């Protein structure tokens, strides 16, 4: 009978904690898993890849092991002109997102079409694949689904990247790694929450917009504008390049830190970036000793700056 009250209290506490975890985590996950994935969700997970944060394939958050989003206007296999299409290229060894690994989370209809007409079960990580988002009818409704274009159209990863070229390639999945690693979500949210938000930042997302995405990067605090639809408000790559290099170039009183170090050692032309000279000239500009601010170097194709800008400009 010793310490009976403590035993009862401990059991009640464990029951309350377990129940709260079930209500908070398990039941919502069951609900989310049963939600039908939207077209937005399919595009997001295919462009982001398996995990948008720390992972086995990218332990140091360098943007490795991610797909490449390409815009095609000709068939990669035949070279013939086609209607413009966005494709998601997974080179050999790049992990597939959850929707491909566990099709059940795509929801009824989307899962059936993806497995049937889309032939996603035929895709293998070891050999790589190319995916597109297509539409078809299911039980009287038109649904978006994932199509394994490698199986249905014969498109190979290397051919798709070559057909698009660097100008039509985007490193959105790698860019999300930069967004998370650099702490962008400490100040920016990806979730307009209230009516005032909707009027300025755009419509809030639907529950089915996040099937297969991990993590969602909603953010927990907002010290700067919401970015969920930022590319619909401002799609200028030049503006974004200036903004990330030094935010004060476009917003005089911005409290956002510089991200010029993401440019690396060389610019897009292969020239070494002289940061000390640029900052000295910028200080002269701020002091009124120069009429114009110094030219911002264009980020190299493989730079982390390019990845981050690609991600932000994909937020529509």
Per-chain topology:
Layout: H1 4-34, H2 39-48, E1 68-74, E2 81-90, H3 98-101, H4 110-115, E3 129-138, E4 141-148, H5 149-152, H6 157-164, E5 169-170, H7 172-181, H8 195-201, H9 230-233, H10 237-245, H11 275-286, H12 304-312
Antiparallel strand pairs: 1-2, 1-5, 2-3, 3-4
Helix pairs in contact: 7-12
Structure write-up:
By secondary structure, the protein is α+β, with helices and mostly antiparallel strands. The chain has 2 domains: 133 residues, no CATH class; 135 residues, Cytochrome c-like domain (Cytochrome Bc1 Complex, Chain D, domain 2, Orthogonal Bundle), CATH 1.10.760. 36% of the residues lie in helices and 12% in strands. It is built from 12 helices and 5 strands. It has a 5-stranded antiparallel β-sheet. A hairpin with a 6-residue loop joins strand 1 and strand 2. The model has no long low-confidence stretch (mean pLDDT 93).
Number of strands: 5
Tally of distinct domains: 2
Order of neighbouring strands in the sheet with most strands: 4-3-2-1-5
**Annotation field: number of helices:** 12
Question: Brief description of this entry?
Answer:
The chain is of the alpha+beta class. 36% of the residues lie in helices and 12% in strands.
């Amino acid at each position: 009978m010793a310490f009976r009250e403590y035993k009862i209290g401990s059991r009640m506490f464990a029951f309350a904690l377990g129940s709260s975890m079930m209500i908070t985590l398990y039941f919502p996950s069951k609900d989310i898993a049963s939600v039908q994935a939207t077209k937005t969700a399919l595009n997001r997970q295919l462009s982001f890849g398996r995990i948008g944060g720390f992972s086995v394939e990218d332990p140091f958050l360098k943007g490795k092991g991610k797909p490449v989003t390409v815009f095609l206007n000709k068939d990669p296999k035949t070279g013939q002109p086609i209607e413009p299409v966005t494709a998601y290229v997974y080179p050999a060894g790049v992990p597939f997102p959850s929707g491909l690994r566990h099709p059940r989370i795509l929801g009824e209809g989307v899962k059936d079409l993806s497995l049937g007409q889309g032939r996603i079960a035929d895709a293998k990580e070891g050999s790589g694949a190319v995916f597109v988002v297509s539409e078809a009818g299911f039980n009287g409704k038109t649904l978006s689904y994932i199509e394994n274009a490698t199986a249905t159209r014969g498109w190979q990863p290397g051919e798709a990247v070559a057909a698009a070229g660097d100008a039509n390639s985007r490193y959105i999945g790698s860019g999300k790694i930069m967004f998370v690693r650099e702490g962008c979500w400490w100040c920016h949210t990806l979730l307009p929450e209230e009516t005032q938000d909707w009027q300025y930042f755009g419509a809030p997302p639907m529950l089915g917009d996040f099937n297969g995405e991990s993590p969602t990067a909603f953010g927990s605090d907002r010290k700067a504008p919401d970015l969920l639809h930022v590319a619909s408000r401002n799609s200028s790559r030049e503006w974004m390049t200036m903004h990330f290099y030094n935010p004060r170039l476009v917003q005089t009183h911005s409290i956002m830190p510089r991200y010029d170090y993401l440019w690396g050692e060389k610019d897009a032309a292969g020239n070494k970036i002289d940061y000390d000279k640029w900052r000295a000239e910028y200080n002269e500009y701020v002091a009124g000793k120069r009429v114009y601010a110094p030219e911002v170097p264009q980020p190299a194709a493989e730079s982390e700056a390019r990845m981050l800008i690609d991600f932000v400009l994909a937020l529509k």
